[in-house]
Design a protein that fits this description.
The two termini are 31 Å apart. Helix 3 crosses helix 10 and helix 5 packs parallel to helix 12. With 328 residues, the protein is an alpha/beta fold. The chain has 12 helices and 11 strands. The chain is globular. It folds into 2 domains: 184 residues, D-Maltodextrin-Binding Protein, domain 2; 125 residues, 3-Layer(aba) Sandwich (D-Maltodextrin-Binding Protein, domain 2). It binds aspartic acid. Aspartic acid binds next to helix 3, helix 7 and helix 8.
């Protein structure tokens, strides 16, 4: 099926009749709306970034970018949907360290995260943040760890599913602090955050961009971020190391991919539109306000995303396999 699709796209010419030279599809691209598949719930951190970017990329591409939230199984269903799509530039896979790295070690995927996808652009990143419901009787990371350890049964931690960023961060937190958590999977951290605010779950090791607004509003409590420096936009939150926990460093970066076999000119076009969006001061302001760190200029190529993904697979797969993460 895939071979057939590739053959169709490779040969998809607009033929104007005898005497007209065939025009490759890439020359008229894009001539209709483009779908970005976000593999997590609407209103979450992936969805928010995809929407900000998509809106700005429309200005460069002249066609709307429509967000489709295809959720479930730690994002692996949505990525699978993108992999199965025709490699014609009309379907983009939005993802991150969880979906495009960790999931390969957590699930028996029917696709290969590297061989079946073509990198387009490395998107902004952010540290994870340890947050709890306000009813938790702790005011520092040390007190939180003591509280987590002293409980008769493990506290509940919301995640966006096995292999998602919030799940990997939770497993990492367990291993560096010696605590035990009971994971509650959601279709994204947007619904998990709603339950945290309502006091239905105890903690989330969340993407900063998801939680920060609620931390500022005082509806949840923040303890530390997983970076070696504080956030410029929330400098009152200590780093994990400052809060007494060494070795808890994690940066969650995102990216855009297209199905393997997408014409090079289309990948270049999409990359240019994304780079233009990321260079727009209004987009920058919006993303930085959420604690996101913009991608360095020299890292904005498709090759940089490909290299980052491969390096992270080499780093994380052994850690995840050693942690023996079970799909619940
Ligand atoms: N990025 C996911 C979301 O948008 C959350 C996660 O991976 O933890 O919900």
């Amino acid at each position: 099926m895939r071979a057939l699709l590739m053959a169709l796209v490779a040969g998809s010419f607009v033929v104007g009749g005898p005497g007209f030279a065939p025009v490759a599809a890439a020359d008229t691209y894009p001539s209709r709306p483009i779908t970005i598949i976000v593999p997590f719930a609407a209103g979450g951190p992936s969805d928010a970034m995809a929407r900000v970017l998509g809106e700005r990329m429309r200005m460069s591409l002249g066609q709307p970018l429509v967000i489709e939230n295809v959720t479930g199984a730690g994002g692996s269903i949505g990525v699978g949907r993108a992999v199965q799509s025709p490699p014609d530039g009309y379907t983009i896979s939005f993802g991150h360290l969880g979906t495009h790295v960790a999931n390969g070690a957590v699930y028996q995927l029917k696709y290969d995260l590297v061989a079946d996808l073509e990198p387009v652009v490395l998107l902004p990143s952010n540290p994870m943040i340890v947050v709890s419901k306000t009813a938790v009787p702790a005011t520092s990371l040390k007190e939180l760890i003591e509280w987590l350890k002293s409980r008769p049964s493990p506290a509940t931690a919301g995640t966006a599913g096995a292999g998602s960023g919030s799940h990997i961060a939770g497993v990492y937190f367990e291993s560096v602090s010696g605590i035990k958590l009971q994971y509650v999977p959601y279709r994204g951290t947007a619904p998990a955050l709603n339950d945290l605010i309502a006091g239905q779950i105890d903690v989330i090791i969340d993407q900063t961009s998801n939680s920060i607004t609620q931390v500022r509003a005082g509806t949840i409590r923040a303890y530390a971020i997983t970076d070696d420096k504080r956030l410029a936009s929330a400098s009152e939150i200590p780093t994990a190391e400052e809060a007494g926990l060494k070795g808890f460093n994690m940066t969650l970066w995102s990216g855009l991919w297209v199905p393997r076999g997408t014409p090079k000119e289309i990948v270049t076009r999409l990359n240019a539109a994304a780079v233009e969006a990321l260079s727009d001061p209004a987009v920058k302001k919006q993303l930085e306000g959420l604690g996101l760190e913009m991608t360095p200029q020299d890292q904005l190529t498709p090759e940089a995303l490909g290299a980052r993904q491969k390096a992270e697979i080499a780093k994380w797969w052994p850690i995840i396999k050693a942690a023996n993460i079970k799909v619940e």
